[in-house]
Amino acid sequence: MATAVKNDTFEQEVLKSDIPVLVDFWAEWCGPCHAVAPVLDRIVEEQAGGLKLVKVNIDEERELAERFGIASIPTMILFRDGEPSVSVIGAQPKGAIERTLGLTAA
């Protein structure tokens, strides 16, 4: 299950995490965001504790959206060791998201 993060919890939940963190930048009004959410839940579930999912509502956390240059949503950024490593923009099929994030064999 995804954790909602805010500017004041982002460092602890994402940057200081011991495991990779997938950050989903989304908004309530965004249809594709809602479409991709269950796909992201499934990806994280299948990683069996090796990946954490957090959500950032860009309408509520504009500072975080600006900090990471979010221009369109949904945008998912994978953080490893506190650094953004790869991103996926737009609702895509599960396999495409996993390949882009490097979570499965190509």
> Level of helix content?
25-40%
Work out the helix count. 4
Specify the overall morphology: globular
| Largest sheet, spatial ordering of strands | 1-3-2-4-5
Largest sheet: 5 strands, mixed
Determine Rg (CA atoms, Å). 12 Å
Quick structural gist:
With 106 residues, the protein is α/β, with parallel strands linked by helices. 37% of the residues lie in helices and 25% in strands. Strand 4 and strand 5 form a beta hairpin.
Outline the structure in words.
With 106 residues, this protein is an alpha/beta fold. The chain has four helices and five strands; from the N terminus they run E-H-E-H-E-H-E-E-H. The protein has a five-stranded mixed beta sheet, with helices on both faces.
What are the SSEs and their pairings?
Elements: E1 3-4, H1 7-15, E2 21-26, H2 31-46, E3 52-57, H3 62-67, E4 75-80, E5 83-89, H4 94-101
Parallel strand pairs: 1-3, 2-3
Antiparallel strand pairs: 2-4, 4-5
